User: Which sequence fits this backbone?
């Protein structure tokens, strides 16, 4: 090996050796990895496969309203959101950008699948994050408050996805987040040593692909259901207008009727 | 042109902090040439393609059979061993560059001593030194032998580190080879004695957590070492130790 002659600057530049016993990056990075699965990934699972899927089909609007009302009435819902969703997502995203910044993508020299996936994981993460910030802002913090007026929820989503550019943004966000999560499960299993063998990792990768398609399929089906139902004279829109007049009344009525 | 020639574009640098520049060479073709033999031809007659006299190219090599690990360089942009890079299989002009993530000593020779610092940091050895004869060690099962042997083939060439997107000055990542050696020595019945210390070392800054699982390492490794499997296995060992310590310490 090249050990430089005594006059050459050994390790003056170049990558530093391992700092055994130093720093907390191990905990921070593993926490990043964990938050991606629980609670962020778990929330995505709930959001797409359980909540949004209720919007599919004939009774979509009312089933969806019931689901929103159920979630909005969970005890301490604000703290659940804060500690179960917002803080973990913010951490996962910001630390993720930090990871991205420090990596040195090299798909030009090494154009292999795993390396492309490495790069794609960063881009899908960024796209999903931009989408999530916008989606949270418009759905949770602007317009009619769906926690107070769950019945208006179908109409509120409809009001957005009816615009084709926004609808496409929804689709892009859905696909990006689904891929990021599905491949993230694979990465998590590989890095935490849960699945280590070649064959087992291939099998898991196939399962993650199926999971990705499932997330996209159900997500698209519910988006389609929002977009395809007639807007005019829709009972949800009436409910939205009514609940504007009688704040809070609708949610409890609806729940009482169950 | 009667005889076939081989065209090489070589990135040169005369001193560790000097400026790099390219020179082009043309050497007569012979069957079964490899990159090292082409570099030897240039050394025998160090004249550039356009006829200017120059110095021979500096590079590391020793075994010429892909077991010493010294001749690693970028060949057409990829990290690999020059002695096993057959000219017949390379697109011309053949671009030769020193590794990009290690300090250049001169021309294609780089200082890769960081891998030895890393191997020392994880105590990549079997502790048998003592004041008296320890006798025969415990036997290894055939299954463990089979898992360990491929890992023992590492030649410390650093290809896996050069190709790794996470190995750079910002992360100070330890790289796949050292992680794989941790697995090797943790498999050894006597080497196991240092397992705790090795895993603890890998939790330091620049440790195993920096791996982004891009899997370039396993693709470029000239010795076909199952590096991603090692990263997963050691990743599991590290997590077990970290969580266990959280509960038991
Ligand atoms: S899997 Fe990727 S990030 Fe991890 S050591 Fe190998 S090349 Fe580097
Ligand atoms: S693991 Fe492979 S690529 Fe890395 S140093 Fe060892 S032999 Fe070279
Ligand atoms: S000269 Fe030993 S590996 Fe190439």
Assistant:
């Amino acid at each position: 090996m090249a050990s430089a002659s005594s006059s050459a600057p050994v390790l003056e530049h170049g990558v530093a050796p391992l700092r055994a016993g130093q720093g907390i990056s191990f905990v921070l990075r593993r926490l990043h990895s964990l938050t991606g699965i629980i609670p962020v990934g778990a929330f995505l699972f709930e959001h797409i496969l359980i909540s949004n899927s209720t919007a599919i089909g004939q009774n979509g609007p009312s089933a969806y309203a019931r689901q929103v009302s159920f979630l909005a009435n969970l005890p301490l819902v604000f703290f659940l959101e804060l500690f179960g969703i917002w803080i973990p997502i913010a951490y996962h995203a910001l630390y993720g950008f930090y990871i991205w910044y420090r990596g040195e993508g090299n798909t030009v020299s090494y154009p292999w699948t795993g390396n492309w996936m490495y790069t794609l994981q960063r881009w899908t993460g960024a796209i999903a994050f931009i989408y999530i910030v916008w989606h949270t802002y418009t759905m949770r913090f602007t317009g009619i408050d769906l926690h107070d007026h769950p019945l208006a929820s179908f109409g509120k989503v409809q009001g957005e996805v009816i615009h084709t550019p926004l609808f496409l943004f929804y689709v892009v966000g859905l696909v990006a987040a689904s891929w990021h999560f599905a491949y993230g499960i694979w990465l998590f299993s590989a890095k935490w040593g849960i699945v280590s063998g070649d064959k087992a990792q291939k099998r898991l990768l196939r399962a993650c692909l199926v999971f990705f398609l499932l997330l996209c399929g159900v997500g698209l089906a519910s988006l389609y259901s929002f977009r395809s139902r007639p807007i005019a004279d829709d009972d949800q829109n009436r409910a939205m207008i009514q609940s504007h007049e009688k704040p809070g009344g609708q949610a409890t009525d609806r729940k009482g009727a169950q | 042109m009667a005889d076939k020639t081989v065209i090489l574009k070589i990135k040169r640098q005369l001193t560790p902090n000097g400026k790099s520049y390219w020179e082009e060479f043309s050497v007569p073709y012979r069957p079964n040439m490899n990159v090292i033999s082409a570099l030897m031809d240039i050394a025998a007659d160090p004249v550039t393609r356009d006829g200017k006299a120059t110095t021979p190219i500096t590079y590391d090599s020793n075994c010429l059979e892909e077991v010493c690990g010294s001749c690693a360089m970028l060949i057409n942009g990829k990290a690999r061993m020059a002695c096993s890079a057959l000219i017949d299989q390379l697109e011309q002009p053949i671009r030769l560059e020193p590794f990009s993530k290690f300090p250049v000593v001169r021309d294609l020779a780089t200082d890769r001593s960081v891998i030895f610092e890393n191997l020392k940091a994880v105590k990549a050895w079997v502790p048998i030194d003592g004041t008296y004869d320890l006798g025969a060690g415990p036997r290894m099962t055939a299954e463990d032998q089979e898992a360990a042997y491929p890992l023992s083939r590492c030649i410390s060439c650093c290809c896996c580190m050069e190709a790794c997107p996470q190995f750079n000055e910002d992360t100070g990542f330890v790289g796949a080879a050292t992680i794989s050696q941790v697995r090797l020595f943790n498999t050894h019945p006597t080497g196991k004695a240092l397992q705790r210390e090795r895993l603890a070392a890998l939790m330091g800054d620049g440790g195993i957590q920096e791996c982004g699982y891009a899997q370039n390492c396993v693709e470029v490794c000239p010795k076909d070492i199952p590096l991603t499997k090692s990263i997963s296995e050691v990743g599991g060992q590290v997590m077990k130790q970290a969580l266990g310590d959280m509960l038991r310490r």
